[in-house]
Amino acid sequence: GFGAIAAGFFLFLSVGVENGLSGWLPLFAERVWRVRDSTAAMALSVFWASILAARLATASAARRLNPRRWILAGLAAAMVGIATLMFGGATAVVMIGVAVAGLGLGPVFPTAVALFQDRAGAASARLIGFVFASAGCGGGALPWLIGAISSGSGSLRAGLAATLAAAAGMILTLRWL
Fold it and tell me: Of the residues 89, 97, 161, 169, which has the maximum number of CB atoms within 10 A of its CB?
């Protein structure tokens, strides 16, 4: 039904943002921040460690949280973090942006899946394959889009703006999830 389509689109964007940021972050760090390879690798480690820490925290606090508010707060934090990493100047500020983006994105995917399964009830068993396939497609499509925008504009920063647009799209889609 429509709920599965909304969930599939939401998770398409969610996985796309995670993969888009993690795929392009090291190159962005080298080109835009002009840091060494080791610092670029550190940024990627900070991003994934933040996502994992947020997912662990979400798992332990999930019963006490309103899922829609939790997702919305996560997306707001992710957008602030993405903007900070895109426009921050000092490496320390940018690393904070990377961490905030990861912390914000961390709870989004698992909470959205749980929300979909709760809302879909018994139908979720037959629809979850479509939802997860959509998510996987986003993981391939958004990194490609970032590259296409970057190549077309000559700016990796412009390409990463697609992650901000995708996060905004998730906020808009949340009402149908």
Answer: 97
